[in-house]
Amino acid sequence: MMRKILPLLILLSLTAFAGCSKDEEPQRVSFANREVITAKQSAKEVNLRFAVGGMITPKEGLAYYKNFLDYISEKLGEPVSFVDRQDYADVNYMLESGDLDLAFVCSGPYVDGHQKFGLELLVAPYAFGGAVYHSYIIVNKHSPINSFAELRGKKFAFTDPLSNSGMLVPTYMLARINETPGSFFQDYVFAKTHDNAIKAVAQGLVDGAAVDSLIWEYLDHTNPEFTSKTRIIEKSPSYGIPPVVVTRAMAPQLKEKLRQIFLNADKDKKGREILNQMMIEKFIVPDDRAYDSVREMKSFLQERNSQR
Predict the structure, then answer these.
(1) What is the reported pTM?
(2) HEC letters along 255-283
(3) Domain residue ranges in the chain
(4) DSSP three-state, residue 21
(5) Using an 8 Å Cβ cutoff, are 121 and 110 in contact?
(6) Which class does domain 36-131+240-289 fall in?
(7) What is the pLDDT of residues 127-157, one digit of tens each?
(8) What's domain 18-29+135-236's superfamily in CATH?
(9) β-bridge partners, 155
(10) What does the DSSP 8-state code read for residue 205?
(11) Which helix (H) or strand (E) holds 306?
(12) CA–CA separation, 301 vs 277, rounded Å?
């Protein structure tokens, strides 16, 4: 039975959640008509379109990514447009249809896109001491809950339905104990972004949430207003960090030129300043095998669902 969308009034101007009762599936909301911002106006036709979603930085950090976009455009000698997308499925759809050329994507959508339409790794950020990240299970600072198991019968926030840290990991954790979100939680919602989920926990709107460690750490370092009101009760194993990907149709020469701009940004004064603002140490060339653990979780869940 198709689940209704339950609007929740989120304090401090949080966006609406897509709420879920126990026996229904969430509807996906498309953001396909959102704003496209062009980096440094040029008379040339825009020939590169770059999307940055909310999987590696909260909304407030996107300004630094726009600065980095200008940096790429300057080094490349070509205009580049910034495409604002928060919905992971929209980013993959646009990459597959040719409406995007490159993007920061979550690990789960990379795995899906690589299998479905040949999405390719370009580079990956090295941040907080590594090229990995985790799913953090968080609760309110004053909550008596100290383990994921104690969230049974509580209200929980996922982020995006395609998010690795915000959906796949906690769903996999439940499947390992023969549970589903519907059977385990009294109620659950989709916050759409990790910073929204953190705020919801901090404000007591939900009992717990699964969030991206990169975003929790970024906010805790730059603006701990809400992270300081939450507590990490469980940290998942490490997963390959959300990468920068390109479409298979991109010319090899352009792909390599872009890769070198990313890889050398930390060696350039201007590039290093922007990376510091993004809280990224440098970019590296990732190995596709770093995402095998994501594939294993997906396979486990697909096999389990086929047997139900």
Answers:
(1) 0.84
(2) HHHHHHHHHHHHHCHHHHHHHHHHCCCEE
(3) 18-29+135-236, 36-131+240-289
(4) coil
(5) yes
(6) alpha beta
(7) 999 999 999 999 999 999 999 999 999 999 9
(8) Periplasmic binding protein-like II (3.40.190.10)
(9) 187
(10) S
(11) helix 292-306
(12) 37
